[in-house]
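thought: user wants a sequence for this fold. calling inverse folding tool.
action: design(structure=
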């Protein structure tokens, strides 16, 4: 069998045809055409390899009687064309996820149609350990009188993979707390001139979630986005100047979470991950970076207000009044602040980004990792969700440390 299925299903409906070429005569009764979707997780141990498959989707295409030949015989050397069209659903049926979950929000995600994790003509940052695969399968049956209905063995069979970028609604930003293992909204590090010198101060980077990115229907185009990072430097001595800020790298991390058992929760949030993550990354395309000049903030205690002339901000200096109860190093009542904006895009010319999804066995999430050099290296990251048409990255949170 051969077919005319394209390598990527860009539309919700897939119109095409199935061509059947036979080398010997075949008497048949019926032709069955299915659209199948499966999740596959493979685990390799020292002594054994296990493979778990979860059927996500199985659609039947009715073949009208007008397509069949009057003799119900496929003759040798002839090609028979059977047109078909599938409408890909946005939602899976409820029997796909009948497992115990922590919240109905998790079940709602498990019932969304996940995108393919294999078969694209570009790098989709996935391995062969986990697969979300869709295919069109054609089978020819010859049913004789008196033959039991089950099981039927096809006399001809062929299956052709297709790749789907599934539509997905935008979700609200994640709620992250200090106990979350994957995301940290703020990170602090010591600044040194070199490895052996004393710290010149402490620097803190903090960010909110970046703006969403919209993907095109075919995944080959995407809008740009921006990450905003607020930076504060607390010098160890009044004469210590703030360091120069530089963006060392900006990368997109693709995390594929998988488990042979259905997950009861989202794997990328909370303190107890229910799945293991395989992380692959690629550099983001940085359009521009802008860092504001350092502003010096001088803190004075309330008792000193009457003894000082407080006139607000003047140039690059800002005077702030703090309460006596606050813990403040009176010898260095200075903080320097600045902010950095990183405008970036996804490398869609070389990669395809299946929109973020959470299925029973497999999840795909994305993280934007930004490494900042400030007399050393401070690594931060912002998580993002990709959604299919209307597809966009839904930014989740800011993450510290190595992803």
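)
observation: tool returned 403 residues.
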């Amino acid at each position: 069998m051969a077919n005319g299925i394209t390598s990527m299903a860009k539309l919700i409906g897939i119109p095409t045809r199935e061509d059947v070429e036979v080398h010997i005569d075949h008497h048949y009764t019926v032709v069955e055409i299915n659209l199948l979707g499966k999740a596959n997780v493979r685990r390799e141990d020292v002594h054994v390899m296990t493979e778990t498959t979860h059927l996500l989707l199985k659609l039947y295409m009715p073949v009208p009687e007008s397509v069949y030949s009057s003799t119900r015989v496929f003759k040798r050397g002839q090609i028979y064309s059977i047109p078909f069209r599938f409408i890909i659903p946005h939602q899976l049926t409820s029997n796909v996820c009948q497992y115990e979950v922590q919240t109905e929000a998790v079940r709602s995600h498990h019932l969304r149609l996940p995108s393919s994790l294999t078969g694209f003509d570009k790098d989709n940052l996935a391995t062969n350990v986990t697969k979300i695969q869709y295919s069109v399968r054609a089978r020819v049956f010859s049913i004789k009188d008196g033959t039991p209905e089950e099981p039927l063995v096809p006399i001809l069979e062929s299956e052709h993979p297709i790749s789907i970028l599934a539509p997905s609604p935008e979700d609200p930003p994640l709620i992250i707390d200090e106990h979350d293992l994957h995301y940290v909204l703020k990170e602090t590090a010591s600044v040194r001139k070199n490895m052996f010198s004393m710290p010149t101060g402490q620097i803190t980077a903090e960010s909110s979630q970046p703006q969403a990115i919209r993907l095109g229907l075919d995944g080959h185009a995407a809008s740009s986005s921006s990450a905003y990072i607020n930076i504060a430097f607390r010098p160890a001595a009044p004469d210590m100047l703030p360091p120069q800020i530089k963006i060392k790298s900006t990368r997109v991390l693709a995390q594929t979470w998988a488990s042979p058992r259905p997950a009861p929760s989202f794997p990328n949030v909370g303190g107890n991950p229910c799945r293991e993550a395989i992380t692959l990354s690629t550099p983001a395309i940085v359009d521009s970076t802008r860092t504001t000049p350092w502003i010096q903030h001088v803190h004075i205690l309330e008792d000193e207000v009457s003894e000082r002339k407080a006139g607000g901000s003047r140039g690059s200096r800002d005077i702030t009044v703090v309460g006596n109860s606050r813990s403040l190093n009176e010898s260095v009542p200075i903080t320097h602040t600045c902010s950095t904006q990183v405008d970036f895009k996804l490398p869609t010319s070389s990669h395809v980004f299946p929109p973020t999804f959470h299925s029973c066995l497999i999840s795909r999430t994305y993280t934007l990792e930004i490494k900042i050099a400030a007399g050393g290296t401070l690594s931060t990251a912002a998580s993002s969700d990709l959604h299919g048409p209307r597809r966009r990255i839904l930014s989740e949170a800011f993450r510290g440390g190595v992803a």
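thought: summarizing for user.
answer: Here is the designed sequence. Residues 1-13, 309-315, 322-328, 383-403 have pLDDT under 50 and may be disordered.
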